[in-house]
Structure formats: C-alpha cells, structure tokens
Amino acid sequence: MRPANVHESLASSDAARSRRVGWSFVASYAAAYLATSLVFIAPLLVTLALKVNALVGTDRGADSLSLVASVGSFVALVANPLFGRLSDRTTSRYGRRRPWLLIGLVGGTSGIVVVATADAVWQVLLGWCVAQLFFNALLAALVAVLPDQVPPEQRGTVAGVLGVCLPLASVGGTYVVNVFSGHELAMFLAPCVIGGFFIVVFALVLDDRRLEPTDRPAWSLRQLVSTYYVSPHRYPDFAWAFVSRFLFVLAYAFLVTYQAFYLLEHLGSTTAEVPHQIFLGTLVQAAVVVTAALVGGRLSDLTGRRKPFVVAASTVYGVALVVVAVAAGFDGYLVGMAIAGLGFGLYQAVDLALVADVLPETGDAAKDLGVLNIAGALPFSLAPALAPAILAVGAGSYRVLYVVAGLCAVLGAAAILPVRRVR
C-alpha cells in the first residue's frame, strides 16, 4: 500500500513506459473507473432531472435543469485541471493520486446528499456544484493513472476496457435508480455507496508513486494560469484532440441531458415510465458498447492506429443521433441507442489511448489530462445553454435538437484528421 519513492513524474519515466501491467491491475483500475462513472452518470441520466421535475414541474423543469447542469459543468470545467495540477504536485507519503481519490469520493458524496435532501432548486444547484467539484478531483487523479502506469503499447487495450465502464455504469446506475424508485434518498445515495466501495479498494491497492518535496516545481501565478492552457501552437495534435473530443461530448451531452424530456414530450411517455425506458435504452446501448470497446481497443493496439477508429466512431454516433431524432416510437429510439452503442464503444476504446499518446512531454500528465477534460466538461455547460435556443428555433422539437447533436459528432470526426503524431 505504501507508494514507491520516485524523483520525477511517472509520465516521463522510462521504467513506467516499458513495464507492462497485469490483468489484476487492469481489473481493479476498471472497477474504480466504472465506479467513478457510476457516481457521475446516475444523477445525469435520471435522478437530477426527476428531482428538478418534482420541485418545479414539467413546465419549468427543462429550464431549471439547464441552469443546474450548466453551472455544475462550469464548476467541473474549472475543477478538473486544477485538481490535476494539485495531484501532480502532491508530496503526500501516500502518493500523488491516492489522497485525491479519497478526498474526491467523500466530498462528492456530500454534495449528492445535499441534492437528495433539497427542497428548492437553489439547493439542488449548490449540492450539484459541490458534487462536481469533488468528483472531478477524483476523476482527475484516476484518469492520470493511465499514463502513469500503462505503457503505450497497452494503452489501447486498457482504454478499451475502460471504455466499457461508462455504458456499464449507465446500465447499473439506471438499474439501481429503478430498484429504489420511490425512495428518493436511496435513489441518489445507492450509486455512491456501491461505487465508493470499489474506489476505496483501488486506492488501497494502487502502487502509487511519491513525489519528494524537493522535486516539487515552484508555484507561481503564471503556473496557476497555465493550469487551464496548453499551447495549440506548440502542441497542435493535443489541440485537435481537444476539439474532436469537445464536439463528440457536446453531441453526447445533448442526448443524455434531455433524454428524459425527449421521452416525456417527444414520445409521450409518462413520468413513471421514464426511469424504466432510460434503463432499457442504456441496456441496449451498453450491450453493443461492450463488444465495440473491447474489440476496437484490441484492434487499435494490434494495428498501431488510432485515428481511423475515432473517425468511424464519431461518424456512426452522429448517424445514431439522427435515427433517435426521427424515431416515431420507443422501438425507433431503441434502434438509435443500439447504433449509438457502436459509435460510443469504439470512441471510448480508442480516444483515451489517442489522448495519452499526444500528451505534451512536460511531466504534468494529470494537469494536461485535466485541460483535455475541459473538452469533456464544457459541453455539459454549453449544451443546456444552447438547447433552449435550438428548441426555440425548432418550435420545441427535440427532433431538431438531436439532428444538431448528430452534426456535432460528425464534425468531431473531421477534427481528428489533422492529428499527425499518431496514425
């Protein structure tokens, strides 16, 4: 459990790059990654929308949810790179990543408690901001484990395994919420309790590395500002990877943020039906994602290629969103979600490996991944801000909203083409 004593960032360590990881590490890492996805995704998919709807009703629900989701995503946008930088500089005897895994879990769960017990939208907003702040501390440390511990030739395979985690967490989260439907506090806290167990186990077994206080870089205002910036001129591949991820996640954010309202208003579902329908949709999607992610990640490592997989994944996901948009009934929605699973699985498998391959060689892996994670957080702030305007132009049609989302995914495919450092 004690971290090894090293004198430099593992991201630039030759030993770390050459030592292959075993399946016991992959299993524990994947379990923690799935658990982290679970605590994030359960509120986003179901409980946050249902909580807001219970407080203000359907007429004001979409606008109130937009406020909560957009402000929370802005907090995530700021928090992820900041905690990544702090993790890179942590000189704790327990390592650089382990302390933040535990701090993030405890703090984030506290925020979820506030959301669950709220009796006004402003309290939901406050709790969700606290949850986003600390869960992003957890996420920043956890994602940095990939470049810390996994050599380049295994990253596609490991990223493929991690790519399975989000859809499994989506299925697990919606299932848990469905099981505890009618028990509001349990709906919110059960994912945190279940996920927290696996995060704690991984934190205990992680062979984390220590940073000696004498090796910690000096802190300055300029470095603080640079926490949120990587030069696109010096690192163009990183910049294009950022743009591509931003557009793909924007498409995903439109889907998941407004999925409940799409079912309620576009397909005419009842409030009681929505949790079960979202569970079925995520189950269908996950069944395809698991195969696509595992096969895609392995093929990417065997061929040594990343870009074709990302391009194909983004394009397929765009097509899937159009299928959802034109669906006339629940069966059509399920078909769209299945196609989305193919695109999402390929993307989850390969994008993280591509990102790890184009990281700047600066020794700030967690910080740089935090900057890139802005591309994963900012869309969840912009989507709720843009959606009302898109819905207004489209006369309140969620069909128009999801066609726009599909276009974003296709543009994300085009944005990865200029990357030159990886094939």
From TrEMBL:
<feature type="transmembrane region" description="Helical">
    <location>
        <begin position="238"/>
        <end position="258"/>
    </location>
</feature>
<feature type="transmembrane region" description="Helical">
    <location>
        <begin position="186"/>
        <end position="206"/>
    </location>
</feature>
<dbReference type="Pfam" id="PF07690">
    <property type="entry name" value="MFS_1"/>
</dbReference>
<feature type="transmembrane region" description="Helical">
    <location>
        <begin position="371"/>
        <end position="394"/>
    </location>
</feature>
<dbReference type="GO" id="GO:0005886">
    <property type="term" value="C:plasma membrane"/>
</dbReference>
<dbReference type="InterPro" id="IPR011701">
    <property type="entry name" value="MFS"/>
</dbReference>
<feature type="transmembrane region" description="Helical">
    <location>
        <begin position="65"/>
        <end position="87"/>
    </location>
</feature>
<dbReference type="InterPro" id="IPR020846">
    <property type="entry name" value="MFS_dom"/>
</dbReference>
<feature type="transmembrane region" description="Helical">
    <location>
        <begin position="158"/>
        <end position="180"/>
    </location>
</feature>
<feature type="transmembrane region" description="Helical">
    <location>
        <begin position="278"/>
        <end position="297"/>
    </location>
</feature>
<feature type="domain" description="Major facilitator superfamily (MFS) profile">
    <location>
        <begin position="237"/>
        <end position="423"/>
    </location>
</feature>
<keyword id="KW-1133">Transmembrane helix</keyword>
<feature type="transmembrane region" description="Helical">
    <location>
        <begin position="124"/>
        <end position="146"/>
    </location>
</feature>
<dbReference type="GO" id="GO:0022857">
    <property type="term" value="F:transmembrane transporter activity"/>
</dbReference>
<protein>
    <submittedName>
        <fullName>MFS transporter</fullName>
    </submittedName>
</protein>
<keyword id="KW-0472">Membrane</keyword>
<feature type="transmembrane region" description="Helical">
    <location>
        <begin position="99"/>
        <end position="118"/>
    </location>
</feature>
<keyword id="KW-0812">Transmembrane</keyword>
<feature type="transmembrane region" description="Helical">
    <location>
        <begin position="400"/>
        <end position="419"/>
    </location>
</feature>
<feature type="transmembrane region" description="Helical">
    <location>
        <begin position="21"/>
        <end position="45"/>
    </location>
</feature>
<feature type="transmembrane region" description="Helical">
    <location>
        <begin position="336"/>
        <end position="359"/>
    </location>
</feature>
<feature type="transmembrane region" description="Helical">
    <location>
        <begin position="309"/>
        <end position="330"/>
    </location>
</feature>
<dbReference type="InterPro" id="IPR036259">
    <property type="entry name" value="MFS_trans_sf"/>
</dbReference>
